Protein backbone atom coordinates (compact mmCIF):
# COMPACT_ATOMS: atom_id res chain seq x y z
CA UNK A 1 0.00 0.00 0.00
CA UNK A 2 1.26 3.47 -0.80
CA UNK A 3 1.63 6.26 1.74
CA UNK A 4 -1.08 8.74 2.69
CA UNK A 5 0.87 11.57 1.01
CA UNK A 6 1.12 9.57 -2.21
CA UNK A 7 -2.63 8.82 -2.12
CA UNK A 8 -3.44 12.52 -1.71
CA UNK A 9 -1.38 13.33 -4.82
CA UNK A 10 -3.29 10.93 -7.12
CA UNK A 11 -5.72 12.17 -9.78
CA UNK A 12 -9.30 10.83 -10.03
CA UNK A 13 -8.44 8.04 -12.51
CA UNK A 14 -5.60 6.80 -10.31
CA UNK A 15 -7.78 7.01 -7.19
CA UNK A 16 -10.48 4.90 -8.85
CA UNK A 17 -7.91 2.33 -9.93
CA UNK A 18 -6.37 2.13 -6.44
CA UNK A 19 -9.87 1.92 -4.91
CA UNK A 20 -10.63 -1.16 -7.03
CA UNK A 21 -7.29 -2.77 -6.15
CA UNK A 22 -7.66 -2.19 -2.42
CA UNK A 23 -11.41 -2.60 -1.91
CA UNK A 24 -12.22 -5.05 -4.69
CA UNK A 25 -15.00 -3.04 -6.33
CA UNK A 26 -15.27 0.25 -8.21
CA UNK A 27 -16.31 3.37 -6.30
CA UNK A 28 -19.76 4.80 -6.87
CA UNK A 29 -20.01 7.36 -9.66
CA UNK A 30 -20.89 9.94 -6.99
CA UNK A 31 -17.92 9.20 -4.70
CA UNK A 32 -15.86 12.38 -4.48
CA UNK A 33 -12.09 12.45 -4.79
CA UNK A 34 -11.91 13.75 -1.24
CA UNK A 35 -13.86 10.76 0.10
CA UNK A 36 -11.78 8.30 -1.93
CA UNK A 37 -8.60 9.83 -0.49
CA UNK A 38 -9.95 9.57 3.06
CA UNK A 39 -11.06 5.95 2.68
CA UNK A 40 -7.84 4.87 0.98
CA UNK A 41 -5.71 6.74 3.54
CA UNK A 42 -7.66 5.06 6.34
CA UNK A 43 -7.10 1.67 4.74
CA UNK A 44 -3.37 2.41 4.42
CA UNK A 45 -3.22 3.37 8.10
CA UNK A 46 -5.06 0.19 9.15
CA UNK A 47 -2.66 -1.91 7.11
CA UNK A 48 0.31 -0.07 8.63
CA UNK A 49 -1.09 -0.68 12.14
CA UNK A 50 -0.79 -4.42 11.64
CA UNK A 51 -4.37 -5.08 12.76
CA UNK A 52 -6.25 -7.62 10.73
CA UNK A 53 -9.36 -6.69 8.79
CA UNK A 54 -11.19 -9.32 10.84
CA UNK A 55 -10.43 -7.42 14.06
CA UNK A 56 -11.57 -4.15 12.52
CA UNK A 57 -14.76 -5.75 11.18
CA UNK A 58 -15.50 -7.26 14.60
CA UNK A 59 -15.23 -3.82 16.23
CA UNK A 60 -17.46 -2.28 13.57
CA UNK A 61 -20.07 -5.04 13.94
CA UNK A 62 -20.07 -4.57 17.72
CA UNK A 63 -20.61 -0.84 17.26
CA UNK A 64 -23.49 -1.47 14.84
CA UNK A 65 -25.17 -3.90 17.25
CA UNK A 66 -24.99 -1.42 20.12
CA UNK A 67 -26.42 1.29 17.85
CA UNK A 68 -29.88 -0.21 18.24
CA UNK A 69 -29.79 0.09 22.04
CA UNK A 70 -31.63 2.97 23.69
CA UNK A 71 -29.34 5.86 24.43
CA UNK A 72 -29.80 9.31 25.88
CA UNK A 73 -27.58 12.27 25.16
CA UNK A 74 -24.93 12.54 27.86
CA UNK A 75 -25.47 14.97 30.71
CA UNK A 76 -23.67 18.19 29.90
CA UNK A 77 -24.13 17.78 26.15
CA UNK A 78 -25.41 20.65 24.08
CA UNK A 79 -27.75 19.82 21.22
CA UNK A 80 -27.89 22.32 18.37
CA UNK A 81 -30.40 22.22 15.56
CA UNK A 82 -31.13 24.70 12.81
CA UNK A 83 -34.76 24.82 11.76
CA UNK A 84 -36.24 27.24 9.22
CA UNK A 85 -33.17 29.48 9.35
CA UNK A 86 -33.10 29.71 13.15
CA UNK A 87 -30.71 27.95 15.54
CA UNK A 88 -32.09 26.12 18.59
CA UNK A 89 -29.83 25.11 21.49
CA UNK A 90 -30.82 22.55 24.13
CA UNK A 91 -28.64 21.60 27.12
CA UNK A 92 -28.85 18.09 28.58
CA UNK A 93 -29.04 17.88 32.40
CA UNK A 94 -29.65 15.01 34.82
CA UNK A 95 -33.21 16.32 35.26
CA UNK A 96 -34.07 16.62 31.57
CA UNK A 97 -33.43 19.21 28.89
CA UNK A 98 -33.08 22.98 29.25
CA UNK A 99 -34.42 25.12 26.43
CA UNK A 100 -35.33 28.80 26.66
CA UNK A 101 -34.61 28.76 30.41
CA UNK A 102 -37.16 26.01 31.10
CA UNK A 103 -36.55 22.35 31.97
CA UNK A 104 -38.35 19.92 29.68
CA UNK A 105 -38.81 16.21 30.32
CA UNK A 106 -38.55 15.15 26.69
CA UNK A 107 -36.86 16.20 23.49
CA UNK A 108 -40.05 15.38 21.61
CA UNK A 109 -41.94 18.08 23.51
CA UNK A 110 -39.26 20.60 22.55
CA UNK A 111 -39.30 19.47 18.90
CA UNK A 112 -43.10 19.76 18.85
CA UNK A 113 -42.87 23.29 20.30
CA UNK A 114 -40.27 24.32 17.70
CA UNK A 115 -41.95 22.78 14.65
CA UNK A 116 -45.61 22.91 15.59
CA UNK A 117 -45.98 19.25 14.58
CA UNK A 118 -45.37 15.89 16.18
CA UNK A 119 -41.72 14.90 15.85
CA UNK A 120 -39.43 12.37 17.42
CA UNK A 121 -37.25 14.64 19.54
CA UNK A 122 -34.18 12.41 19.38
CA UNK A 123 -34.51 12.22 15.60
CA UNK A 124 -35.10 15.96 15.30
CA UNK A 125 -31.92 16.71 17.29
CA UNK A 126 -29.90 13.85 15.79
CA UNK A 127 -29.63 11.83 19.00
CA UNK A 128 -29.81 8.05 18.82
CA UNK A 129 -32.91 6.83 20.59
Features:
129 residues, alpha+beta, 2 domains, four-stranded antiparallel beta sheet, 4 strands, 16% strand, elongated
Structure overview:
The protein is of the alpha+beta class and 129 residues long. The chain has two domains: 4-67; 78-125, no CATH class. 49% of the residues lie in helices and 16% in strands. It has six helices and four strands, in the order ααααββββαα. It has helices spanning 4-8, 12-23, 33-49, 53-67, 107-115, 121-125, and strands spanning 78-83, 86-93, 96-99, 102-104. It has a four-stranded antiparallel sheet, covered by helices on one side. A hairpin with a 2-residue loop joins strand 1 and strand 2. The chain is elongated and about 55 Å long. The mean pLDDT is 86.
